[in-house]
Amino acid sequence: MTPFVLSFVMLALLLVMLVLRIPIGVAMFVTGAIGYVSVSGWEPLMNHLKSNPYHYFSTYSLSVIPLFVLMGEFATRAGMSRALFTAANAWVGHRRGGMAMAAIGGSAGFGSICGSSLATAATMTQVALPEMRRYGYSGALATGSLAAGGTLGILIPPSVILVLYAIMTEQSIGQMFVAAVVPAAIAVAGYLIAVQISCYLDPDAGPAGARMPLIDRFRTLRSVWPVALIFILIIFGIYGGWFTPTEGAAIGAFGTGVLAVTLGGMRTTEFLDCIYGTARITAMIFLILLGADLLNAFLGLTRMPTEAAMMIVEMGLSPMAVLLAILAIYLVMGCLMDSMSMLVLSIPIFFPIVMSLDLGMAPQDQAVWFGIIALIVVEMGLITPPVGMNVFVINGMARDIPIIESYKGVLPFLAMDVVRVLILVLFPGIVLWLGSVL
Amino acid sequence: MVDSLDSRADTPETSLHRLISGVCNIFAVLGGLVLVSIMLSTVFHVLGRVLFNSPLRGNFELVEFGSATAIFAFLAYCQLNRGNVIVDFFTARAPARVVSALGMVGDLLYAAIAAVITWRLTLGMLDYRRYGDETMVLGLPTWWGFASVLPSVTLLTLVCLYTAGLEMHGVIRGGRQ
In terms of CA atoms, which chain A residue is nearest residue B44? Predict the structure, then answer.
């Protein structure tokens, strides 16, 4: 068996293990280890494991991840979700569907200090869902807007997945963050339009609330400025090179930690909860990274990713067709797997292929652009029926709303996602613009 | 990000379980305190550099030591609390016995990985101690870092065997409740 064929056999074995509920990191580690031994032998693998697990986990650039996870945990405790929702609602609550728009805006604000979609969806639901139900919002619009709003958590920087993509593809974390800003703004705009479409289709879906005097509206902004400050400091501090991503994450975690103590009333018990949450998510991520590291070491030995990329180039397919095929795979897989494991698993194989395509961009621009597109497509899986993890989580918190209602409610938002992906694929300049003017 | 957690609640009321989960909690909290420490030292480092032009010497090395120590300390807690990501789409309707059996296979594979890593890192630590490798700025012996993660991977191995035992119990009794 040539190494090239072996790599495909191993990937098939990996998929079988995934279907059979083997934890993703464990499955990658096992297949990577078997492949590594088949190509290089037992001794080299044993030498690799003698120091690599330690050195990998102590890599300075990876230390940014537990710090951002900690920041997200503190942010969840800081009670900022209520302040953000209240502030957004003060400005748009008097419109039809305004409270759903406020949920989108609040999710966007929360996503700017929390890098996880599920955490964003869950926290914002606790705050906004009871309010929307009280004002007679339909279950479809209420849960649909919250599920869609949650996906902003991962796109809006700082986000753990953007960091992982940057590290794995050796791009600058600051550039990834800045590149995500405009697509995130487009996402928010698209979701606001989706709320209006929902209200147009079902005029009773989102009754208008009371109008607030302008002075009170500005007053609500006072409690959310720390969020804006932390967001701007981190994104532009890292991009501008004032500090490393790890330093930015430490500052962000410290800032949200202070908010959690002062505004959220975090004491020892709540602090320990944050630590346990951080432990759980960090360990989950690093088991996957450990497995991916060994699998990638094996794939590197077989040279499969580069050879596959060369073969695709020689086939002379249109670059756009290849790209769309990859995005289609992401969309389908995104419904079955969680977004982070999927990106970690697929980047080593897909990234060389994408980089070999001539899409008329400078290589570095293409890398950044593809990361943003891939992230958005993967995230769509979070709200795509019949799985859609975000929909599940939110529906679980709203027992009286049938899941089919939630799926219906999410459809206008999914449609806007499709439009957004098409726009960003056809006009890559939108993703690259902010980085080029800063 | 935690998109497909295996969220079946499973907390047997035995003294063994209390002991194991107590130890895992202690490791998680210690790891968390290390993480918070590197967060604070890094904030001081940046403030010192920006305000007084005097960065904390060797903060880079403390972050590297600290993050490895913290991350390894988190692994056992995550495994005991079923925090690792699995794809459950294809087995969502499988009988509880089958699910437990597959869970046991996964736990045993993880146990094997953890055991091999414990073994190899122990040898790695001895190597580094023999060569006297040190960090550049602070001169910390590299083997200290290895030594700080060995208790964590040892605990991880035991916890994986324990959770595999729980799953085996599930296979015999017809699935976890």
Answer: A251
